[in-house]
Amino acid sequence: MDTLNAILGGFAVAAQPMNLFFVFLGAVMGTVIGMLPGIGPAAGIALLLPVTFGMEPVSALIMLAGIYYGAMYGNTASAILINTPGTASAAMTTVDGYPLAKSGRGGAALAIAAIASFIAGTMGIVILSLLAVPFATFALRFGPAEYFMLMAFSLTAVSALTGKSPAKGAMSAVFGLMIASIGIDLQSGQARFTMGIPEFLDGVGLLVVIVGLFAVGECLRNVEKWFEGTLQPIPIKGKLWFTKEEWNRSVGPITRGGLIGFAVGVLPGAGGTIATILAYATEQKLSKHPEKFGTGAVEGVAAPEAANNGSTCGAFVPLLTLGVPGSGVTAVLLGAFIMYGIQPGPMLFQNNPDLVWGLINSMYIGNVMLLILNLPMIPLFAKMLYAPPGVLLAIILGIASVGIYSVGGSTTSLYVLIFFGAAGYLFRRLEIPAPPLILALVLGSIMEQSFRQAMTISGGNPEIFVGSPICIILLVMIVVAVLAPLVVSRLKALPGRVAARSGTA
Amino acid sequence: MADRWLAGFVFVLSVIYLIAASRLPSLEIGDPLGPKVFPYLIGALGCITAFWLLVESLRRRPAAASAGAQPRVQHHLPAVIAVMAWMFVFYFLIERLGFLLSCAIFLAGLTGYFNRGRWLMNAAVYLGFPVGVYLAFTEILGISLPRGVLPF
Fold first, then answer.
1. What is the pLDDT, as a whole number, of residue B30?
2. Is residue A34 a contact partner of residue A71, using CB atoms and an 8 Å limit?
3. How many domains does chain B have?
4. pLDDT exceeds 80 at position B60
5. Partner-chain contact B53 A167, CB within 8 Å
6. What is this model's ipTM?
7. Which of A206, A379, A504, B75 is the most buried (most CB within 10 A)?
8. Per residue in B134-143, pLDDT tens?
9. Residue range of the domain that includes B102
10. How far is A173 from chain B (nearest CA, A)?
11. What is the pTM of this model?
């Protein structure tokens, strides 16, 4: 009953005119950020964080979350129209979306994608609402040792599963932990690894690392891509609607894709990209005409689009109920929570129900807005794809600079930004995934704290980390996460085969 | 080959990190672990990942030769370094000339090179963006940006 009241209270929060405005703003920016290749939701959220400092935390979080799931709508248009996914999780959409656009069914592909995103997104929010309280209640049993193991699991999974090489993923996580250890140690008051730079006593700012790695790093990479010229988008042909037959073929993929997406999204590490691959592979297996996949099958657009929206909702489950994010983007969102002085986790639902339910329920409204933005208005947004890359590059670097300067308040933070921008560029060149670094940076000090608390409780005996059934289960999950890349590399080979056969890779 | 350099770099970095950690003064009051132990674990993990990557790159070698058909983005390192240097100039000038002027110069340079020939559009960007951002930050968000040599 309490929960029901809390949920209704959340609707009251979400429906406040101010918050409606911020959902709308988040949805618009998410669509744009998702659509533009080269800037994803993690960088987009980080770029906007500085301007949210004066805002109400609820409104700010509603807007930032809107950018996250909004990007899952926007990333479709570039996948279908220029054969380049706006964010990594739309990569599977290109396989059938681009052939559809080439054959003049681009309008139908966009429409089915928007509807699939909407249905899966809404389904996902309902499941999120149902799971949130049981998850949070369960998490109340976690002590410092369990928390440490949970964070270790999340970090292992993200390291092992983002990127091609698990060793490089782990390396990225180690960099993040190293950066997190810079600054004053909270328990002993000892300054560590500050390299004599006074600004580092408070630690290296999360924002400067994220903006540097994602936004500036990507811009520097785009400098190189600029020399190769740009792809011209295929104009949207035909009506922005689908036939009855196309719809009938899509209902199943949307439902299954949404559910698969949600389940994969809850797990740390896997995230949108793997969810879309799984959903696509499932539909191909179930289809009576698997050979049509890769040549413009509408199911091949519906399933991954549903999956990536389902997975965003799923990703909110561990973030909100456990306080432990399972991906780069949710790590940035956790960073936002912490900056506003709010600690997500089991207590959030008891101490701050208006905030958490306001945020969750705002997503229903956000999805309706996104459907409108991405159906009748998508031709308008698609014009963004014609924006000259040189101008985009300049503007993104401008926003990054002014944002970091306004938060850091000194030019030192700007020089640190150049450093992490260069690091981001090198990460891309050397194929080191950045999300493990961000996650490790956000979790680093919390992990150290729970580690030391657990060791204090046990009097220095490390057996406490295998001392409860929950710990042992988490340990098993860590081992599974280490082995998971073997399975995933086989899965990833699958779309490659599809693409090779149809010649659209 | 790049992977082996990377493995070597991470190994050296981890060792330096471990040495720096061992030099931390530790005050063991009420905390059995002190500020050093967790960094020791991180440093050790760093060494492990370096060896792991080395093993991975040695094992991948025969397979990589056959799968090298992927299209690659050409590298233009001088251009990348030039853009970073240009950012440095912007940041060096931001407090000296003020935000409006330094940002306008920064954007004019970038768009002048990467969006060549479209004078009108570029002027709109390098004049409109700094003014818009300056007004939004100082008037709406209440965050001050360096005024510099300009009187407003």
1. 57
2. yes
3. 2
4. no
5. yes
6. 0.90
7. A206
8. 998 888 887 8
9. 77-141
10. 9
11. 0.89
